[in-house]
Every structure is written in structure tokens, then in C-alpha cells.
Amino acid sequence: MGLFTSLVLFSPVSGVVLKDGAPVEEAEIRQELRLFDEKLPVQRALSDSSGRFHFAIVERRAGLSRIVPHEPVITQTIIITYAGKEYEAWIHTKNSYELNSELDGHPLRLQCELSREPDFEGKHYGICKAV
Which positions fall inside the DUF6795 domain (predicted)? Predict the structure, then answer.
């Protein structure tokens, strides 16, 4: 990988928000990202009538990051707000700049059940499960 390639900070995310198995429309989904100590701009989305939402890939130019030895520490958070309540949907620490490294090479497709208690699933925490 070259000096001018991009670093993937958050792979593309697609998901669905459910409550008791039924799609939730107009839930606010907030994607937050921190690279080491730097907080990056928050992205927002609303779930559609099928409960679906999407976030595009978040990348950054590699610059010196490709030649200076270090271990990436990228804190990824997705928060869902619905009916005045916030839900911890996805909390994950990514230690790689590779695409889809969050789920060991699999795309980030999430099913977020608001009635579920947050818990660990693999390396991430929250109400969302990878599907």
C-alpha cells in the first residue's frame, strides 16, 4: 500500500432498526468516530419506512501513517435515538486501516433491535448484531 492510499477508519455500514421485530421509521442514527485522541465529524442518518439506514465509508489520506510504525486505535460508535431514548448500538475499537476489518473481512451489515439489552458480540458491544 502506498503513501497516497486511503486509510479506512469506518467501513461502509448498512443496517435495520427494529423494535420487537417490527421496522422502526425515522429513528436517528448517529455515527461517531475517534482516531487516537482526534474526534472526527459526526455523521447522521434517519431510518426509512423499512427501518433501514446506511453510512458511507469513512476514509483519510494515509500520508506518513503508512511509513511511521504504529497501531491504529479507532473508536467507532453508533448511537440510535428513538422516542426520546438513546441506545448504544455499536461500540468497537478498530485496530486496522483495512476495509471491513471490523468483522474480519465481512461487510458491516447490522440488525439493531431496540428491545435487546446491549451486550458483547465478538469484538463489539451494543444492541446491534452482525447479519
Answer: 13-117
Cβ atoms of residues 25 and 47 within 8 Å = yes
pLDDT > 90 fraction of the chain, expressed in percent and rounded = 83
Domains for the chain: give ranges and CATH numbers. 6-130 (2.60.40.10)
pTM attached to this predicted model: 0.91
Side-chain half-sphere exposure of 17, counting CA atoms within 13 A: 28
Residues 52-93: pLDDT tens digits?
A: 999 999 999 876 555 666 789 999 999 999 999 999 999 999
Which set of grid coordinates corresponds to residue 27?
Answer: 429513528
Q: How many CA atoms lie within 13 A of 19 on its CB side?
A: 12
Cell output for 71: 497501531
Residues facing residue 61 across a β-bridge: 6
CA 99 vs CA 7, 15, 68: distances in Å: 8, 17, 20
